[in-house]
Amino acid sequence: MRVIFIDQLGCYAAVVAACLRIGICSEKSKWQQIAYLPYFAFQNTMLPGEIYHIGKDSEGYEVYTLGVGNAGVLIKASCADLQKLRESSKIMIIDTSNHNPFMLRLFWHLARWNILRRWRIIIAARILEKKVAQINKTVNNRM
Amino acid sequence: MKILYHCYGGSHSSVVSAAIHLGLLCRNRLPEQRELLSIPYYDAQVNLDHGHIRFFGFDKAGNEVYIVGRHGLGDFYETILSRVLKLDADDISNIFFINTMSCVNIFMVIGGYLSRCWNSTWLGRRIVIFGTRRSFWKFVQLVEQVELKLEHREI
To answer: Distances in Å between the alpha carbon of B61 and those of B2, B53, B86?
Structure first.
């Protein structure tokens, strides 16, 4: 079984959710810990489609994150239909796009300047620190 | 083989391409308005349908033909789904994605928007049908290219 957390770029709320699932971070994690999560704020472009392997959870499921742009609901529907066509149910998709607030998405544009990369990570980690509890709730409800 | 025609809304260009592929529309002449409106899913899909893969039929070679609306993702739709599918199975060569937006003209865009987003079907349908007939030969060409690739297994 593979669990894929999706958000716009696959490296913000999705990474936090994936790490909560694996157990690398918890609801009480501070922004300093979030900033050092694997692949957090990794992407330097605004293009969707990148998939990141985060690890395995306690049940042995492989956990990934995936960037899908603003089409989280659409991709989830398509993946579910494709799995039915292939008679497979090995992939679970969880959408965490809603946990990336608009303000956070504005800072993604800092990615085009490498020199501002560190600021982008810090700002993103600080914003998502306040959302960890909500993300954890999403993960627990969907699993 | 599963053939997936995708476009913005899954209502016009993908539907017409799939219909030509399955022989629901004649390739030798322009379709009439009633023929286009009689195609399943033509100018019918709504927002809730986007992303859902709809079965259209079997072609002569027994391939399954589907349509889907994927909003503004463009070719990223194939990239994203291919990456997800590869996690499930190493070989995904039996799914063929075709982006039909290259055949869409401004009349189809405006007419489709009026009909599907503003619910102005009286005006929107007329414009989108006009646009579809204008681009019809492009759709036929696209489908013929798809069939050639399937025949030569270039996928």
So the answer is: 11, 21, 25
- Sort out which chain B residues have CB atoms less than 8 A from A76's CB and list them: 51
DSSP B24: S
> How far is B52 from chain A, CA to nearest CA, in Å?
5
Task: Let me know if B34 is exposed, middle or buried by CB neighbors in 10 A (0-12, 13-18, 19+).
Answer: exposed
Interface probe for A, chosen from B84, B90, B94 (most Cβ of A below 10 Å), is B84
Q: CA of A28 to nearest chain B CA: how many angstroms apart?
A: 31
Neighbours of A116 (CB within 10 A): 14
Residue range A82-127, pLDDT digits in tens: 888 887 778 899 999 999 988 888 877 777 777 788 888 898 999 9
To the nearest whole Å, the CA of A81 is away from the closest chain B CA by: 6
Pick among A52, A70, A74 to test the B interface (most B CBs inside 10 A): A74
A86 CB neighbours in chain B (<8 A) are 85, 88-89
More confident call, A81 vs A104 = A81
The residues, any chain, with a CB within 8 Å of residue A90's CB and separated by 6 or more, are A1, A2, A83, B87, B88
Report how far residue B66's alpha carbon sits from residue A46's, in angstroms, rounded to the nearest whole number: 29
pTM, to two decimals: 0.90
d(CA B121, CA A15): 43
Containing H/E element for A65?
strand A62-67
- What pLDDT is attached to residue B90? 67
